[in-house]
Amino acid sequence: MKGFSRIIVLTLALCLAMGAAAQAATLKIGSQSPLTGSYAADGNDIANGTRAAIDAIQKEGGIPGFEKIELFAEDDACDPRQAVAAANKLLNEKVVGVVGSYCSSSTIPASEVLDEGKILMLTPASTSEKVTERGLPYMFRVCGRDDDQSVAAMKFITGELKAKTVFIVDDKTTYSQGLADNVEKLAKEKGVKVIEHDHVNQGDKDFSAVLTKVKDAKPDVFYMSLQNSSSGALMLIQAKRMGIDAAIIGQDAVYHPQLMEIAKDAAEGVYLTFGFIDEETPAYKKFQAAYEKYGKPGAYSAYAYDSAYSLLSGIKAAGSTDPDKIKAAIMKIDADGASKHIKFAPNGDSGSNYIIRVVKDGQFKNYWDPQTGKKY
Q1: What is the C-alpha separation between 265 and 360, in angstroms, rounded?
Q2: Pseudo-torsion of CA 241, 171, 77, 108, nearest 10°?
Q3: Helix H or strand E segment including 313
Q4: What is the pLDDT of residue 174?
Q5: What span, in angstroms and rounded, lies between the C-alpha atoms of 63 and 10?
């Protein structure tokens, strides 16, 4: 009996150990975005938005079966090759899902890697139509799309500004050039003359050559499609110095508090397209409280939070880390998020709600609604 009793004790001890191990299980999720370099401001906002969502979920009781949720934040530098390397690293870490990336040119190749491993990816910032038009079953997008953003910009150009001519500049990235191409196409359809569609390079600091062309052309609108706010700020400073007096329209990648910090008064009066965010909703205030320890929210902080919160809510509702069960749970989400109402279409998109904002007194202000054609 002594031997039998000892077996019972050992068996109980093993069961308790296994139970403790199960209780101590860690849920791994990933993020990938540019944490260093020119795009680091937006990239770190994405990582921090993901962290804030983890904090919020943990505060609500966490996810049954997991003692903690661990984030693996990878730097993809908005470089396609580094994005693939980051995705492979997350694959090897056996993360359940990934929030990212920022640049469409990174999200697209990274998502191919993750999809092969059946890992869900939710982008808070990549707006290229191609992101959700490749038929990848585990690809979701919380932000809007370029084809919708370009429509909002053109409605403003023709409906409010009554412009007859436009000069377009992009930096040849997947996102920026895709958006600029859409604006050019719509301008021609609406009878707005495209004086020129010119290009600069990622990382350029001196824009004098292209800005001289803009000044000489005297367009009604200067459409500035760049990948980040630091480049946008430099272009605005140089445009002001040159005395360019066209209405300047930027887009969501240029939309970041850093724009005013760098450009200062050169940013005053600049228009931008960005999704409408109601900061008075309970969902936004909940996000704001969770994000507080990470500093002031950036342009895509709330979108990253909603991306991560959707992923974690899907895991919780599914009661599983099986990708197809999580996907099914995510597809059932129909709720107000911090950035907007979250409900995914079969292709993984969640809709666009772009408005026109303006920099006034050093702050972004709601200015014009493309849906109503009226000012706020």
Answers
A1: 9
A2: 150
A3: helix 301-318
A4: 87
A5: 30
Q: Give the whole-angstrom CA distance, residue 190 versus residue 94.
A: 49
d(CA 151, CA 312): 33
Distance CA 273, CA 287 (A): 22
Determine the pLDDT at residue 8.
Answer: 41
| Distance set, CA 113 to CA 33, 77, 136, 320 (Å) | 15, 17, 11, 22
Cβ-contact 223, 233 below 8 angstroms: no
Its pTM stands at 0.90
Rounded-to-integer distance, Cα 92 and Cα 119, Å: 11
Closest CA to 139 of 113, 178, 168: 113
Cα-Cα-Cα-Cα torsion 73, 74, 78, 83, nearest 10 degrees, comes to -130
* Strand partners of residue 375: 368
CB 373 within 8 A of CB 290: no
* C-alpha span between 303 and 46 (Å, rounded): 8
Q: Which residue shows structure tokens 């850093």?
A: 258
Q: What is the predicted pLDDT for the residue at 6?
A: 47
Q: pLDDT under 50 in the chain at which residues? A: 1-23
| Residues linked to residue 59 through DSSP beta bridges, in sequence order | none
Report the amino acid identity of residue 181: D
Residue 9 confidence (pLDDT): 39
pLDDT 10s digits, 253-308: 999 999 999 999 999 999 999 999 999 999 999 999 999 999 999 999 999 999 99
Look at residue 24 in the predicted model and tell me its pLDDT: 62
pLDDT at 21: 43
The first and second tokens of residue 266, run together, are: 């050169």
DSSP letter at 364 equals: E
Angle made by CA atoms 167, 358, 50, in degrees to the nearest 5: 105
